[in-house]
């Protein structure tokens, strides 16, 4: 048996025993002062190695020191608690994507006359090994989106919330009056859907023809649904198919397809209504279809013509009525005591001629009005 012939602590180093068989050294983080009692058996296999007790690793020393400090901190905190009970309560938090989520927490203690100062905190999301947020000596580490606004209040804030933040969290706190462990809270996340977009295939359809209507809404969470309604508020959702797609950011896109083998133009326009996961309306879009063979401009022209014709008819009738009243007022007895018979006859003849002319004018006006209505009707049918 003999001592090692090479220094310990060198990476991939080798040592030799007295019979010249090679023996692998320890890992590079071993700091050894000496080695002894190496033995090589006759079958060229290594035997046991005896090392000194002081030969321990730096990592082991660091872990031991950390455990000592943590134990001391716990004992100091518990010692300052004066045997009072300290508890923590956190309410479920609900956040929206892109906004700040507030996690409301509060201490519960048998004594309220003493201030509680927070020395350190640790937030660990369940299912993960490392904390998402740590706070010690007024310095926060890990995820910078987490904030501890006050060292006297255990409530937290999460800035720029994402869907991946949803889940259960364990919360540990070291205070001036004790240590709180094994407390938890939950964060729920939602996102509102954008206004839906609508298309049809084919783009232009005919009365009684087939058509597929599409409605797409994106940017929401959790998965919602889409409803279809026509202009009579009839629900067509049961005839539609819905597809949900999750993106890399876990936001959901909704795609709904409504198929008609024979479309009725009396159902137009349609409404595409987007509901969230709780079946509450978030947004909607009105779908105006493009109909082949229907000229909306000509229909507007016909409506204008009918309106103008109606105004003219009313004006003509009012004028004729006003003129007839004036003529009737002119036929009343004269205030003069004596009228010559010839003058009376002349006046009567003139009145009769005026009546005949008036009747002719009325007949002519009625004929023109009738002709206008026939033309308007012909244009509308065309």
Task: Summarize the structure in words.
One of its GO terms (molecular function) is protein homodimerization activity. It comes from Astyanax mexicanus. The protein is α+β, with helices and mostly antiparallel strands. The chain has 4 domains: about 1-55, no CATH class; about 80-190, Immunoglobulin-like, CATH 2.60.40.10; about 195-290, Immunoglobulin-like (Sandwich), CATH 2.60.40; about 295-380. Helices cover about 25% and strands about 30% of the residues. The protein has a 6-stranded mixed sheet with strand order 4-13-12-7-8-9. Strands 14-16-19-18 form a 4-stranded antiparallel sheet, with no helix packed on it. It has a 3-stranded antiparallel sheet with strand order 5-11-10, with no helix packed on it. α2 packs antiparallel against α3 (about 340-380). The longest helix is centred in the last third of the chain and has 41 residues, at about 340-380.
Secondary structure: elements and pairs:
Layout: E1 14-16, E2 22-24, H1 58-80, E3 86-90, E4 93-96, E5 101-103, E6 105-109, E7 118-125, E8 133-136, E9 139-142, E10 146-147, E11 156-158, E12 167-175, E13 178-190, E14 197-201, E15 204-205, E16 211-220, E17 225-229, E18 240-246, E19 252-260, E20 270-275, E21 281-287, E22 290-291, H2 296-330, H3 341-381
Parallel strand pairs: 4-13, 15-22
Antiparallel strand pairs: 1-2, 3-6, 5-11, 7-8, 7-12, 8-9, 10-11, 12-13, 14-16, 16-19, 17-20, 18-19, 20-21
């Amino acid at each position: 048996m003999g001592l090692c012939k090479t220094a310990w602590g060198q990476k991939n180093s080798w040592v030799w025993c007295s019979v010249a068989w090679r023996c692998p050294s320890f890992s590079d983080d071993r700091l050894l002062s000496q080695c002894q009692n190496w033995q090589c058996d006759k079958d060229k296999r290594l035997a046991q190695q005896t090392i000194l007790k002081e030969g321990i690793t730096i990592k082991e020393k660091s872990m031991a020191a950390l455990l000592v400090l943590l134990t001391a901190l716990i004992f100091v905190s518990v010692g300052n608690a004066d045997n009072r009970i300290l508890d923590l309560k956190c309410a479920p938090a609900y956040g929206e994507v892109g906004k700040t989520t507030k996690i409301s927490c509060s201490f519960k203690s048998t004594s309220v006359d003493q201030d509680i100062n927070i020395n350190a905190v640790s937030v660990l999301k369940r299912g993960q090994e490392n904390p998402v947020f740590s706070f010690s000596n007024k310095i926060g580490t890990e995820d910078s989106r987490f904030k501890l606004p006050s060292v006297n209040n255990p409530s937290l804030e999460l800035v720029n919330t994402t869907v991946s933040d949803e889940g259960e969290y364990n919360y540990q706190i070291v205070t001036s009056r004790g240590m709180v462990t094994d407390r938890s809270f939950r964060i729920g996340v939602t996102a509102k859907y954008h206004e839906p977009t609508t298309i049809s295939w084919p783009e232009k359809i005919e009365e009684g023809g087939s058509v597929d209507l599409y409605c797409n809404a994106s940017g929401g969470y959790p998965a919602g649904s889409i409803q279809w309604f026509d202009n009579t508020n009839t629900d067509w959702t049961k005839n539609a198919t819905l597809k949900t797609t999750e993106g890399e950011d876990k936001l959901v896109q909704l795609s709904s397809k409504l198929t008609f083998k024979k479309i009725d133009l009396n159902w137009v326009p349609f409404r595409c209504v987007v509901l969230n996961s709780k079946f509450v309306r978030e947004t909607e879009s009105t779908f105006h279809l493009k109909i082949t063979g229907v000229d909306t401009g000509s229909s507007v022209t016909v409506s204008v013509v009918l309106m103008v014709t109606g105004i003219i008819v009313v004006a003509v009738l009012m004028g004729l009525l006003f003129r007839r009243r004036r003529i009737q007022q002119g036929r009343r007895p004269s205030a003069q005591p004596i009228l010559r018979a010839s003058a009376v006859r002349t006046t009567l003849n003139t009145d009769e001629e005026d009546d005949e002319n008036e009747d002719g004018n009325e007949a002519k006006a009625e004929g023109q009005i009738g002709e206008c209505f026939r033309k308007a009707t012909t244009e509308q049918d065309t």
